[in-house]
Design brief:
The chain has one domain: Histone deacetylase domain (Arginase, Chain A, 3-Layer(aba) Sandwich). The longest helix has 21 residues. 37% of the residues lie in helices and 10% in strands. Helix 6 links the parallel strand 4 and strand 5. The chain is of the alpha/beta class. It has an 8-stranded parallel beta sheet with strand order 2-1-3-8-7-4-5-6, sandwiched between helices.
Length: 394
Amino acid sequence: MQPVFVFSDEWARYEYAPRHPLKPIRLQLTYELMSAYGLLGQGGASVIPAREASTDAILRYHSPEYVDVLRAAGAGLSFPAASHYGLGPGDNPIFPGLLKFSALVVGASLQAAQLVEAGAPVAFNIAGGLHHGMPARASGFCYLNDVVVAIDYLLQRGKRVAYVDIDTHHGDGVQAAFYGTNQVLTISLHESGKYLFPGTGFEHEIGEGDGRGYSVNVPLHPFTDDETYLWVFRQIVPPLIRSYRPDVLVTQLGVDTFRTDPLSHLELTTHGFCAVLSEFCEAGLPWLALGGGGYDVPNVPRAWTLAWAMMNHRSVPNELPEIYLESAVRAGYPNNSGRSLADSPWRAEPQRRTAAWREAERVVHYLKEHVFPLVQASGPSASGGVDSGLCQRS
């Protein structure tokens, strides 16, 4: 089987709110840029139409009451205490079709997991990676947690999963779901919760019970640049994955780590991002790839197109195709990075760089002392169906 891209053009028809930073149009622009480079369809990889997740699949993690609330909210019905479920003006607005949009994202991630289990070397759902969603509460632009549902599917089929999250925000919802199990190794590299939502993900959060040592957090200092980030990543992620020996790699590829992103203080570029992608490619594991954040809209198509090219072992010209630039302008997003697909390496200002390096070294030292021995001492469990520890609901 070849790499598979799961997509729906319906996503671009939804809007959180006119001034909301998460713009679903970025998904359509990514599809158009990939197509312009010949990476999809005829001459490119297979495109699988996304389908909505069933209610039963959603209820593997989310509560029935919460799903009913999302259904009512998306239909325009009023209900008391919307804020109790994280809904309302701000991060998680109520918009028409809210549940359908979210179920389509979950369904696409579940399809991607099924395709990887069936033998696809990699399956990519760029709409996925909504890692903040909680069982009965929306959080951080995320209503349903597609990541948890997809990983749970793999666990139920006896797979041992390594989850690596490179979004600038801590993957708190995924961590919470698997904090007590050793069947999922969760690794999140993110801007420190001292400075950024959701205020969690510190290095001492390492799991509990059977999961002790299997939640790994790498909080980064603001202004961490390509070189510092890559040093940290290579010190932590490849060695832990080798020790853990997972059956499947699941990644959340948020690109809000980029230096021009309005919601972050990290300073990565496509250069650092692609170096991380190379590490994932070299892992040689069945790979479920999901999207994530990214709020400087032109960055998103550029980064995820580069990622998809690498997943397909393809190289593409650095000059952005005219047909894509025309589409971006029509959508209201003239490219703010010139006409180049990829960036040169970026180095932070010296004083900021020194502070970021010192914090990186401190965190790496802590993890090597407190987490590495726990993971290295364990081997893969016996295969077979796994109870992920999620709330099982009929």
